Amino acid sequence: MSCPAERRLRKELLELLTNPMPGIYIDEEKVAKNINEWIVTIEGAEKTIYEGETFQLQFSFNEKYPFDSPTVLFIGKIPVHSHIYSNGHICLSILTDDWTPALSVGAVCLSIRSMLSSATKKERPPDDMIYTRTCSKNPKKTKWFFHDDTV
């Protein structure tokens, strides 16, 4: 019998495969090998500064999912964005402090794609060099300070 996390992940996977979201693609082969490790490709949305670009996210789930958020980071080509560090770590509150079990892989992907779409210039976070030299490999071990972009 599968554990609750695995059942939830299989349900989410089936939903994403039967009702695909625009610009978001699941590596089914990778997920078939290990339900706890997903690779998701995100395309930059049309009429944004990332149009025509593709990026990969790595999702890692533990046995406490969905009560504990997945570890999510960019791998391969890392987008240049003010909330994405050059090591792939993403400063996004729903990945840590604002995570709830009601969220899903699809919701996280939509949030990240929306975050990319709202950018008006490509720049790294101001503390990128210091952060990437001193942080843990696991972005969930970071105590993020979320800036308000409107100020």
TrEMBL record:
Source organism superkingdom: Eukaryota
Name under which the protein is recorded: N-terminal E2 ubiquitin-conjugating enzyme
GO molecular-function terms, A-Z: ubiquitin conjugating enzyme activity
Enzyme class: transferase
Record domain UBC core: where: 8-139
Swiss-Prot/TrEMBL GO biological process terms: protein ubiquitination
Keyword terms: Transferase, Ubl conjugation pathway
EC number: 2.3.2.23, 2.3.2.25
Catalytic activity field: S-ubiquitinyl-[E1 ubiquitin-activating enzyme]-L-cysteine + [E2 ubiquitin-conjugating enzyme]-L-cysteine = [E1 ubiquitin-activating enzyme]-L-cysteine + S-ubiquitinyl-[E2 ubiquitin-conjugating enzyme]-L-cysteine; S-ubiquitinyl-[E1 ubiquitin-activating enzyme]-L-cysteine + [acceptor protein]-N-terminal-amino acid = [E1 ubiquitin-activating enzyme]-L-cysteine + N-terminal-ubiquitinyl-[acceptor protein]
Entries under Pfam families matching the protein: UQ_con (PF00179)
Cross-referenced InterPro entries: Ub_conjugating_enzyme (IPR050113), UBC (IPR000608), UBQ-conjugating_enzyme/RWD (IPR016135)
